[in-house]
Amino acid sequence: MVVGAVDTHGRYDTASLLLGLDLLPPRKVDGRSEFDLDAALARRPAVLVLDDLAHENPPGSRHPRRWQDVMELVESGVDVFTALNVEHVESLNDVVAEVTGTRVKETVPDAVIERADAVELVDLSPDELLERVRDGRVYLPGASPESTRRMFSRGSLLALRELALRRIAERVDVDVQAWRAQEGVASTWHTAERVLVCVGPSPSSTRLVRAGRRVAAGLRAPWVAACVEPPTGLRSAAAARVEESLTLAEALGAEVARLQGDAPAREILDYARRRNVTRIVIGKPTHPRLRDLVRGSLLDEVVRGSGEIDVLVIAGDEHPPEGRARDPRDEPRGSAAGYAWAVALVALATAASWVGRTVLAPPDLVMTYLLVVVLVSARFERGPATLAAALSVAMYDFFFVRPYFTFAVLDLRNTLTFAVMFAVASFTSGLTLRMRRQQGEARERERRTRALLSVARELSAAVDAPQALGALASHAAEVFDADVAVWSRDEGEPAVVATAGEPAVSDAEAARWCFERERPAGLGTDTLPRSKALCVPMKGRARVLGVLSVAPRDGAPLDGARRDLLDAFARLGASAMERATLAEDARRAAERARDEATRSALLSAVSHDLRTPLASITGAATTLRDDGDALSEAQRGELLDAVCDEAERMARMVNNLLDMTRLASGAVRVKREWVPLEEMVGSAMNRLERVLAGRPVSIDLPASLPLLSVDPVLFEQVLVNLLENAARHTPEGVAVDVSAEATEGGGVALTVADRGPGIAVGDESRVFEKFYRAPGAGPSGAGLGLTICEGIVRAHGGAITAARREGGGAEFRVVLPPAEGAPSVPEETAA
Amino acid sequence: MSDEDPLVLVVEDEAPMRRFMRASLGANGYRVIEATTRAEALAMVTGYHPDLVLLDLGLPDGDGIPLVRQLREWSQVAVVVVSARGREDDKVDALDAGADDYLTKPFGVRELLARMRVALRHGRAVGGGDEATLRFGPLKIDAARREVTVDGAAVHLTPTEYRMLTLLAKHAGKVVTHRQILTEVWGPSQTSQVHYVRVHMAELRKKVEADPARPRLILTEPGVGYRLKELPPEGE
Predict the structure, then answer these.
(1) Beta strand pairing status for B31-35 and B7-11?
(2) Residue A578 and residue A560: Cα distance in Å, rounded?
(3) What ipTM, to 2 d.p.?
(4) Which residues of A touch B (CB under 8 A)?
(5) How far is CA B19 from the centre of its chain?
(6) Smallest Cα–Cα separation from A528: which of A538, A539, A540, A517?
(7) What is the pLDDT of residues A534-578, one digit of tens each?
């Protein structure tokens, strides 16, 4: 057992309790002792004692809060003993604030407390506690005496004690339920209960969330926090507040649902029905009743449509159909051009109307102005639209409404005209604005979809993992306007495998954490929030395959939609990596299967093909030794010939097997020299004198052939094998043709053709496979000769092909690429 | 078997190979002594002064090539090296170190005897003067008049071709490495220009061979060099 951090607040009796315990050396941050998480993780004690769960870590720590340290420790298998005060419990935060008048900032999410294996209440009656305060045995944080007095008033303490006892009772209740479930006791759990909390952009939404969690806890029901975004999206400030509430809800153990739709009430109710929600928690409206008349009341709609679902209305919130509400920042004010157009168009309309005033009736004139207003408001923003309306009214009034050339109005009916003009301007420009915003949103969405699509396309086109990850990084950099790195980790430390932009090396810690915990880390998360980059895990089916780290160039954390997009990127990347791995596995498996086939063929070659000549030799030799005297001279000669022939055949096979093995293992080194083809053909012919006996070979080598850059020993082997193959398949007396020609590209093509049975259709490339034997061919070879040819030719950068020869037979063609730097040979004249 | 019979030292670590050579060489009029290691071989050469050493290059106590070099420092004993196929570099090294010829395993006894015969003859001929006229099948070289004829017809050779031909003829029946030809014909500074030899050899063949693509006189030893075949004189 190790003590991680205990603040004794300089009190002797606390310090004395630590005597004899194993204390973890703290790390120093700005002269203050802080708990050293890495040391604790490295040490891996069975039990770690860590005081003050609600503690706030100094900036720059891995986690902003100590409870996060504790979670990490617990996940690494370390048991932790820790303590916290009741006022630090997140869901009680509001209640505590009401009781004590101080809002505690250092809260611990209820989910953390619920994760605890056991919760023990350290209870003390208020009187006793007050006595301890008087004795100075209670650490009072640096709060003002006023707040301290309020906090430690008897009434507050009683209330806080009640809260603590209730919270513990709740917990005990849950424990009892768990025990019952475990022991198979019939559950009294209301399985059907599910609570839905409607979260909006109102600042008091967090309060609603906490209330929702209390309701859910009271019912022991799972709960969901839902928000409805209008299709046009939320203004950034509102979106941030919604995000904050949802994050809080998640921390308190809620499931989070982001819904989308024009009619929030319907969306919420639909979702609630889908998820079998039994209770909806919604905020009390705080806006004036008038607004409900105009826009309809969300609360009202939810209540009316809720049917069998209970609706709890709780103080202080309202749901957000406010996407429509106008944010002065979003509202583009008129550009100078807009105003200029407004003035110009109105002037034009006025001039036109003036010219036509004698022919046109007043309603026609109004129509002219109305057209201007519609045009301006459709084309420009609210400002120019309003200006156009105002100017139109003014001009119309001034020039065309009696009394002329004054702004006075005699006929009241004209005011209606003015009102209509303003209304049209306002309505049209509002419509335009909304359309534009929707357009912008749609464009943004389309951009994201396109980004995803193009990434997906490129990833699926990538041939291997590095290429895929490179594409992923460059796309992410473009879409998020960020420096992007992809980390991978085989064993040990994560390493960057693909980048776009200039990723900071300092993100390694976030990347490693992300690998280990399989959760996002870095910018905008609870872990290493000071990191420049946000790291998201690329989760494969079995494990995290990589980490995508994105450092936005503007340094701002990504918002919800972009986070979703990033997650989608990470998923695409993971599946690309997985695909690459699978492809590689498949390739290896195929290779293994091929190796296996080769091995078994080799085994059969060695066992059968080598044993046959061996048997003949043994038979002949033993006959000669044991019964030599009884044999005639002719018989003895025959046996001796058999021994020699078979031995020669065996030698050839062994040579082939050896060559094959050396080629396959890559042990063959091509020692290129400049050699005339003729010389190699000649020495091959000499070597095969006996094999080719009785088969005339016609050799046609043009004198103009360039020198070949080949390994003379290896290339002679190619010729020998090809000629041998031709001889084997050609009946005696039939010619084998050897010819060569310079190719167009400057290389050399060599052809060895026979008039044997030829090659079966479709076997043209199979003849080069190991241990391939033409059907019907005798057992004279091991089926390696052509394979060796192919291996050698390929090692020379050339190609060998087999084809059916016109007029019957087979034709093998070796094409060598042109060789660079052919040497010159000093000329000489005949002496 | 008499003391006049040539004495052959077989340096070979494989017992079956020694047995085969003992039997076949004994039957063909050679006296055979045996060694199984390099050190033993050196001691035998100094002790018995054999006429020929049949040296396997793959010995248990090391490569045979240094032994060739060592022997050549003080002895003119004929050396024929034996090595496996695919070790052309070893053969060339051994030949350049002073070995007279080589054999590739597996070999037949006729081949073995032919090589040994040639090596022994050259060993004895060392220091002897050139014969005036050399004949190989249809080929006749008149050294005194620097005339070459094939089937009686005069052949015009360039100086280089003539020097190459006479070099091969001098070592008739023996392999001559590319390097040896280069050193003898072009001089010791040109030993990397192996293609000179090849190109001129092709020209030479066109002039002296009936069918250059199927040479009968000048044979190619792939990766090693050339050998002028000893054919009985014919024609004329």
Answers:
(1) parallel
(2) 27
(3) 0.88
(4) 644, 647, 651, 655, 658-659, 662, 673-676, 678-683, 685-686, 697, 699, 701, 707, 712-713, 716, 823, 825-826, 828-831
(5) 24
(6) A517
(7) 888 888 887 888 888 888 888 888 877 788 888 888 888 888 888
